[in-house]
Amino acid sequence: MRILGIDYGDKRIGLAVSDPLCITAQGIGHYQVSHKTKDALYFKELVARYDIAEIVIGLPLKMDGSPGSRVEKTKKFAAWLEKELGLPVKFWDERLTTKQALHILQEHNAPPWKKKKVIDQIAATIILSDYLESKRDNPYDSKNR
User: What is the pTM assigned to this prediction?
Assistant: First the structure.
């Protein structure tokens, strides 16, 4: 069983998966949004390929914790994904993940073209890593964060 981590965007979706023991997260790229039929097929194949049992999506909250302007779109996508795949979808506070991802890329002196190509994947990896760590820290806490 693995967990799929998602950094949702209107055009590009960053993707990461956990290892089978749900200890670490690895980026697996990004998906360019197309149309619902093609998108559904892509995610169904992804779930089958990686044996995904759960999905965690970054929730774009404002710094004060209130819902950001993208929260409603993210929740709508999550509901669609849950319906299409029949898997539980959870949310994780994604505040500052893009800044963390940019910092990582700057530390590695990544050229601008590469930053755009991998930023969503790195953000998804950070979201999933944080989620996995919270599950280890609170193995009996089942609340949806």
Answer: 0.84
